[in-house]
Amino acid sequence: MKSFVLLFCLAQLWGCHSIPLDPVAGYKEPACDDPDTEQAALAAVDYINKHLPRGYKHTLNQIDSVKVWPRRPTGEVYDIEIDTLETTCHVLDPTPLANCSVRQQTQHAVEGDCDIHVLKQDGQFSVLFTKCDSSPDSAEDVRKLCPDCPLLAPLNDSRVVHAVEVALATFNAESNGSYLQLVEISRAQFVPLPVSVSVEFAVAATDCIAKEVVDPTKCNLLAEKQYGFCKGSVIQKALGGEDVRVTCTLFQTQPVIPQPQPDGAEAEAPSAVPDAAGPTPSAAGPPVASVVVGPSVVAVPLPLHRAHYDLRHTFSGVASLDCHGFDVSHHHCVLYLLLTSQK
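Structure for Alpha-2-HS-glycoprotein, as requested:
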């Protein structure tokens, strides 16, 4: 057994060991802690968070492997496999990733795995292709650390939907500010003691005053959209009834500044697509069920009883470029890009 563990550790070290350019294979394998490799990985994580339509930001956990292909006439393509960890910052939260806390395992953490191709050209890194998936830690792993810790609950569970509706209604009833509309249900857990439902959800401000609203359908989003994030708990009282606790934080309005796209980089973020889980989002909702395919967006169905937003629903591995009209797999597409000049 010890020999097997030693062999496994050596294999892990070898996977991140620097290997010079192989003239036969056509690529080199720099060390995982190589500065350019780390920059490419961080550029990939930044791209993921900018294009995530819902859920929470992810941060880099580790680089598993990297291959670097030369690209003619200039540049290199980094083929990187990375692991990510979900943070507590919602994707609509402008807080810098460096200031976002990684979700603890006792909170039922979520981990991601990504295969990403990043172009380095003229000292700039830009993403060509992204394939990711994410999943919560197993119930067994959570129970080992904390037998009584609650697990993630399906976002479309009637108890979850009720808790979100009650929490948001309570906040609006007590607020002196703008009436808030639901954007998405982001996270939920059933807490055993006290018996309660814990929820997290995103909201958007409207042009109505919360305490004056009679017909919410007449409320419109602000011209410059302002999003927020809420946490709530609906506790079942022993003698009947509910105790609702909720806090909401509104984020500063963030102006959208178009960024120049380097040659061969993926383009615009997706536009809004209806979500199948939980109550139907209003127009306040960000893009929620779409996949990045170069300059276009393709709607994809979401699992009905999901408990988190899986990265694969946005980064499904579809080639981000059309390879000049050739219908090829993403690996062939990348190889094609290495051998051709992008105008």
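The radius of gyration is 23 Å.
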